[in-house]
Amino acid sequence: MTIQAGLGGIPWRLPLPLCKTFVGFVRLGLTPLIALGMTFLMEHSSIYRTILLLLISSVISGCAGVTGNLADGLSAAIRENSDLATVKEGGPAYLIMVDAFVMDDPTNPRLLKSAAGLYATYSRFFVADKERRRILTGKALDYAGRAACEANGDFCGLVRVDPDTFNEKIASATISDTAVLYTLGTAWVGWIQARSDSIKALARLPRIEAIMARVVELDEGYMDGSAHIYLGALAMVLPPVLGGKPGDARAHFERGVELGGDRNLMARVLYAKKYARPMFDRELHDRLLTEVMSMPAATEGYTLINTLAKEQARALLESGDDYF
């Protein structure tokens, strides 16, 4: 069996086994090596860069029937990688690959959701430059909004609608909408964080809270309770004297940690960082972070995040005396 593709407007046919082989490489965790090679070529020669982009576009087009598998494999390979330097250096190539996937299949909600997640994760943890973060989080939010629209037509334009319409649409969501709503919420958080100096951007925080609250209502255990962690952090954006809700925050963090168990270590780090520190609870702070340091990072679906969590936990513990 072959799949028809095209390069420079000339149709050709790519054997399906070759597409499946490429998917296999991704699933075996070879994506970082492929990405690093791509990054090297792109940085060292404009000719190589042009040829490489043409080849990527061509192969992706030729593998249209398995694009969703490619995106899932790419996401899994990144999530399971504990080498932070490799992921950071290979990031630009990862993002180019996922853009190519989306260009080939622009209305696939599963693909758009994966693209939003990759852009959101990379911009959150590996991009320090403010302007780059603005660009990448904008791309993440665009993909997330498109994913929501393709999954449920009622969600089209959800980022731009007036508050009343927004609340009505969120209230109408069903359990089948949980994944795209969560992706939209996380991408939107990153977008706001990259524009934290904008009052207009910060004014969107109640919408994130509404999304995450609805996710909890629909499927509290989705992503091991991560929506609770977001709700806990949102409840601590303001200090208590200005309307912050530390009681609600602690309840959400506790529930999120309970649901995450020993899988999602970042839940404990955020609990320590967003609640224990502002509340000057040194005992809770050190207990949570010590637990993180004692747990293994390698956990299916969380290896990358857990490796980052351990790195942050170590830094927070080391700076504890200065803070408290």
Short summary:
With 324 residues, the chain is mainly alpha-helical. It contains 17 helices and 2 strands.
Question: Topology, please?
Answer:
Elements (H helix, E strand, L loop, with lengths): L1 E6 L2 E6 H12 L3 H14 L1 H17 L4 H13 L4 H21 L4 H18 L3 H22 L11 H9 L6 H16 L5 H4 L2 H15 L6 H10 L10 H15 L5 H11 L5 H13 L8 H16 L1 H4 L1
Helix pairs in contact: 1-4, 2-3, 2-5, 3-5, 4-5, 4-6, 5-6, 6-7, 6-9, 7-9, 8-11, 9-11, 11-12, 12-13, 12-14, 13-14, 14-15, 14-16, 15-16
Task: Report what the structure shows.
By secondary structure, the protein is mostly helical. Among the domains are: 1-105, no CATH class; 220-324, Alpha Horseshoe (Serine Threonine Protein Phosphatase 5, Tetratricopeptide repeat), CATH 1.25.40.920. The chain has 17 helices and two strands. It has a two-stranded antiparallel sheet. A hairpin with a 2-residue loop joins strand 1 (2-7) and strand 2 (10-15). Helix 2 runs antiparallel to helix 3 (46-62). The longest helix is centred in the middle third of the chain and has 22 residues, at 130-151.
Q: Based on Cα principal axes, name the global outline.
A: globular
Strand percentage = under 5%
Strand order of the largest sheet: 1-2
Major beta-sheet overview: 2 strands, antiparallel
How many strands appear in the DSSP assignment?
Answer: 2
Fraction of helical residues: over 70%
**Count of helices?**
17
Query: pLDDT under 50 segments (min length 5)?
Result: 1-16, 25-36, 38-43, 47-54
List keywords for this structure.
single chain, 4% strand
